[in-house]
Amino acid sequence: MPGSFGDLSNLLSAFDENSLTEMPSSISKLATLKELRLMDNKLKELPGSIGNMKNLTSLDLRNNLLESGPKSIYELKNLRFLVLEQTDSISFRAT
Which of 34, 72, 91, 95 has its CA 20 to 30 A from that of 59? Predict the structure, then answer.
């Protein structure tokens, strides 16, 4: 996985079924991304910078190892679909 996503700013969907264990904080550089599919990976946490992805409307996190998420998830005002199926007890803290 590259450490920078600056050249991928117009992607629509990415990163499902790749056995990813972490996402770099540079993911937030995908400013125009509307759909982010991270299903069927091995993610244990999301970077706090995910809250900078203001155009995100759909986030699929199913079948990962997540236990908690960053409070910045509440900054995703355009998010309409958040899929958490088959993800062990995950919580997003408001404080």
Answer: 95
